[in-house]
Each structure stands twice: as structure tokens, then as C-alpha cells.
Write a structure and sequence with these properties.
The protein has 329 residues and is an alpha/beta fold. The protein has one domain. It has eight helices and 17 strands. Helix 3 crosses helix 4 (59-73). The relative contact order is 0.16.
Length: 329
């Protein structure tokens, strides 16, 4: 299938709308501007399941199929992330001792829709979303009708965390994925990434992003999926540290249906970071403070801070990144 995303989406919408909408949020969303539509994830799911018919399928499509069925279980929790928060999350360092087995997931799977001007691959365009979730060690689910018609059993010694993304601007659209098992005895971020990812995966904030203050973050192609994996984890942790960042969509005014099957009730989108603004601390050269460096980012950090009696408890805090420096014209 060498079609564009728009052609593929139109085909599924015309020929199999029921199954397509099964992978979408339960209620129609009035989406904000500058995002791919929420159904992009569902279109990708249809494509991934079609690829399962082939005798030789790669782990990318298998992981996407698993993600789509887990998402369907929770009515595909979908969140639209504001551009300033994406920029800050990309420049936030995760602690190596972060225990991935103890993450507080708002949902076991989340679809983070990305603004079109937030992230870019050097040659393949912009990812529409990051879908990240936690899969239990053993889980059974039936495949949709007509796709092999059998029950697929997921068996792994340990739970695993996965992420999938879709690049809708290439022809045909392509997927990226990452998946990592999380054993209870070696579940820190450093241990999990070292065991599951090859050495080409870059550990830490990409230094290029710290010197780039443009609206769009262009990620290195060799680090692209790893950067998205880290971005997905960071967004989950930011929601844990600052739940006020999330604004859940409310029912909108009902409309009169013009034809059978047309939705009559729409909902506003779930938005993460709508009011968030990046911090800026410009250097004051005239006052003798700071330096005369060009504008750049100072990376942020997520860390577990001790508190309580004898400092025995931990809470997640976010030391936010900020922009600084002055122009040298």
C-alpha cells in the first residue's frame, strides 16, 4: 500500500468506519488547531493489523497492534500537548535511578498528540503522536474479526513499557517503536535502557536541543525513536508531578444530526500544558551579571526529593528548564 495518509484514512473511513472508530476515543473530539486529528492513531492501528496478515511482520507492527488493543480497553485516552510543554519536556533530564516499575500512570496507555510545529525528523517529517503504555507480563486479547480470527496471547517474563509513533507525512506513512521489559529487580531507567536498547541510543538530553531555541525541535535521525521514548516518559512524569497541567475535555453543546450515524454530542479535547509558558531568564550584560552568550536552554531535571519523617518519603519534583543568553548582533 503506497498511498498517502489522507488516502488511507479516507479508505478506512469509507469501507470500514465501525472498526476504525473502535480504535478512537469513545466520544468525538473537537480538536484544537495545528494538530493531526485524533483518528490518526486509529488509522495507524488499521494499517498495523493489515500488516499482521503478512507471513513476515516486524516487531513495529506487532507492538502497534498490542498498543491499539490496550488503548481500546481504556477507550483510547488521548491528550493534546501544548507546544511550550513539549519544548520543555524535550530539554528535561530524567534521573537514571528512576524506578520504571513504580510509575504512576494516569492510564495504562496514553496517546499524546503532538503539535505540528513541535518535533521533526530530518527527512521523514513530523510525528503525529507518541503512544506510550505499560503492558502486563501476561495478557490475552482477541484479534478483531477477519484478522486471523484467533486469540493472541502476550507472554513475557516481566511487564514492559512500549511506545509507538506514526509519521503521516511520508508515503506510505511509517511507524517507529520502542519496547523495554522491566524486571522488578533491575527496573531503574539506566538498567532498563542499557539492557533493552542498543548503544546507538543516546542517553540524556540532546545537546543540539539546548542550543536551539526555534519553535520546532529537529531530532537526530539516529536518536529519533529514543528521543520520543524519553519524551513520552517525561510527559507521564510531568503529569504525576504537576497534575494541574491536565485539563480534561468537557461536553460541548449538542448539535442536531443531519444524517444517520452522525455524532450529536462532541467533547472538548484533553489538553496538557495549555497555560504553561517556558521560563526565560535573560543575561543582563550591562548590569555585569551573567554572560553575553547567544540564547540557549539550560536543561531541566525530574528527580525524587526526600521529605517527611527522617526523609523517608519521596516526591517527584520538576526543576524546569529555562532559556537564557542575549543576542550578539
Amino acid at each position: 500500500m503506497n498511498n498517502t495518509y489522507s488516502e488511507i484514512a479516507a479508505y478506512y473511513q469509507s469501507h470500514d468506519p465501525g472498526r476504525l472508530h473502535g480504535f478512537m476515543p469513545e466520544y468525538p473530539i473537537e480538536e484544537p488547531a495545528n494538530y493531526w486529528p485524533a483518528k490518526t492513531f486509529a488509522v495507524g492501528a488499521m494499517m498495523a493489523w493489515e500488516n499482521l496478515k503478512d507471513d513476515e511482520v516486524d516487531n513495529t507492527h506487532i507492538t502497534y497492534c498490542h498498543a491499539s488493543m490496550l488503548a481500546m480497553t481504556y477507550q483510547t485516552p488521548t491528550f493534546f500537548v501544548a507546544s511550550p510543554l513539549v519544548a520543555a519536556a524535550l530539554r528535561t533530564e530524567l534521573p537514571d535511578d528512576l524506578d520504571l516499575s513504580q510509575l504512576n500512570w494516569p492510564f495504562p496507555i496514553m496517546v499524546f498528540m503532538l503539535p505540528k510545529d513541535a518535533v521533526c525528523h530530518p527527512t521523514e517529517g513530523r510525528p503525529a503522536f507518541i503512544c506510550i503504555g505499560s503492558m502486563p507480563a501476561s495478557w490475552n486479547f482477541p484479534t478483531p474479526t477477519d484478522w486471523r480470527g484467533e486469540e493472541i496471547k502476550i507472554e513475557s517474563p516481566y511487564p514492559h513499557i512500549f511506545s509507538v509513533s506514526m509519521m503521516p507525512e511520508v508515503r506510505p506513512p511509517i511507524f517507529y517503536y520502542a519496547s523495554a521489559s522491566v524486571p522488578p529487580d533491575k527496573s531503574t531507567l539506566s538498567e532498563v535502557e542499557t539492557k533493552n536498547f542498543s548503544t546507538e541510543f543516546f542517553l540524556g538530553t540532546d545537546p543540539v536541543l539546548l542550543g536551539d531555541t526555534s519553535e520546532t525541535a529537529i531530532l537526530d535521525s539516529s536518536r529519533f525513536m529514543f528521543s520520543l521514548w524519553r519524551l513520552g516518559l517525561t510527559l507521564v512524569l510531568l503529569i504525576e508531578a504537576h497534575p494541574e497541567l491536565v485539563e480534561y475535555g468537557r461536553p460541548l453543546k449538542k448539535i442536531r444530526s443531519k444524517r444517520t450515524g452522525q455524532p450529536t454530542q462532541w467533547y472538548g479535547p484533553n489538553i496538557v500544558g495549555r497555560l504553561y509558558r517556558n521560563q526565560v531568564y535573560p543575561d543582563n550584560k550591562d548590569a555585569g551579571q551573567g554572560s553575553s552568550k547567544r540564547p540557549h536552554w539550560v536543561r531541566g531535571h525530574l528527580r525524587n526529593q526526600p521529605y517527611g519523617a527522617k526523609q523517608a518519603l519521596r516526591k517527584l519534583i520538576w526543576v524546569q528548564p529555562y532559556r537564557t543568553g542575549i543576542d550578539e548582533c
